[in-house]
Amino acid sequence: MQILFLVPYPTGKAPSQRFRFEQYFDALDKVGYKYRVAPFISEATWRILYLPGHQVRKALGILGGFVRRTAQLLTAGSYDYVFIHREASPIGPPVFEWLLAKVWGKKIIYDFDDAIWIPNTSAANKIVAGVKWHHKVDSICRWAYKVSCGNAYLRDYARQFNPRAVINPTTIDTVHLHNQVRDQAAPGRLIIGWTGTHSTLKYIAQVVPVLAKLEQEFDFEFRVISNQPPELPLRSLVYQPWRKETEIADLLAFHVGLMPLEDDKWAQGKCAFKALQYMSLGEPALVSPVGMNTEVVTDGLNGNICTTPAEWEAALRRLLLDSALRTRMGLAARRTVEQRYSVVANEPNFLALFS
Fold first, then answer.
1. Percent of the chain surpassing pLDDT 90
2. What backbone torsions phi and psi does residue 172 show, to the nearest 5 degrees?
C-alpha cells in the first residue's frame, strides 16, 4: 500500500502533526505500508513563519509551497490513499483536494483536530485571515473517503457531510516519549504548569486572579512553557521557551498542569492535548469543562474539572497541600492515558483508516 501525506509543516515540527499521525509511522512500517510525507511549508520558511517581519521571504515560501503541491499532483496517481492533515494549502479554495478526489479519483483521508471551519484570527495570522477560506472544510469532508476527527464534536460536524467520519484521537506515545512519571513526593519548590503556543496564551487569564491570591499564601512557581513569553501580573511566573529536545524533561518539572479554556465553538473542538500530556507524566490535570476535557478528566480521580474561580482555588489548594493526593491522582491520570489515549491503545484504530 502506498500513502501520500499532504501536510502543512515539515516533519517533527508541529504538535498536531507529531501527535496525530507522525508517531504512527513505525506502525505503518511494521505492516509494510509505504508512505511519503509532503509538507507545504519548507524548513527554511518554517524557521521564520512566526517571527515578526520577513514578509517577502514568507510570501516566497508560500509561493514555493504552491509550486511543490502542483508538482506532487503529477505523482499522486501512484498512491492508494492521500492523507490530508487540515488542508492541502493554507490559503485559497480547495483546488488540490478537488483535483485529487474528482480528477485523480484518489481515496482521501481527511484529518483535523480543531474546529478549523471557524475563523480564529490572532495577531500571528491576521494578514492571511481574509484568504484562509475556512468554509472549504465541508467540501473536503464531502469529497473524502474517510474523515479522521480528533473528538466527537469534530466528528459530529464532519458527519453532516460524510457518514464515514470517525474519531481518531490525538494520542501520547507512552513507550518512547512520555515514558516517565513525576515523583510527587520529591523535595523542591512546587510547580504549577501550563504549556501551549502563543495562540492559546489568552486562556490563562481566567486563572490569574486565583494564582495571585494563592501566591500570597504558598511558595510555588507558575511555569509557562511556550514559544512566546506571557505578560501576566504574577510574581510566581517563570517563562520557559519551548524546546523539542527538552520537552519531556521540562514537563516533568510540573506537579500540577492547568488547561483553562473559554466555552466557545472553537474551544469545543479542542482535543484535551495539554491535559493528556500532563496526565501521561503522572501529573493531575485541572481543566475547564469544555469539549473533550470532560471526557479525559474524571473530577477527583485523575484531576479536577473547574468552572468557577472558587473551584480553581479549592482544587489548587488541595493539591498544593497534599503530596499523597497528587501522587494518587497522578497515577490514575497515567492509567487513563495508557488505557484510552496512548499510541499503543489507538494503533489499530489509526491503521483502520486505510482499510
1. 88
2. -115, 135
Element (H, E) at 86: none
Give the Cα separation of 289 and 276 in Å (integer): 15
Looking at residue 131, its pLDDT comes to: 67
Q: How far apart are CA 278 and CA 330, in angstroms?
A: 9
Residue 234: per-residue pLDDT: 97
> Residue 337 pLDDT > 70, yes or no?
yes
| Residue labelled with grid coordinates 488540490 | 96
Nearest to 344 by CA among 174, 170, 169: 174
Give, to the nearest 10 degrees, the angle between helix 323-340 and helix 343-351: 20
Q: For the beta carbon of residue 244, count every other beta carbon within 10 angstroms.
A: 10
Residues 281, 302 contacting (CB under 8 angstroms): no
Burial class (CB in 10 A: 0-12, 13-18, 19+), 75: exposed
Strands 146-149 and 107-112 come out as parallel
For residue 313, give the 3-state DSSP assignment: helix
C-alpha cell at 339: 488505557
Q: Residue count of the chain, please give it.
A: 355
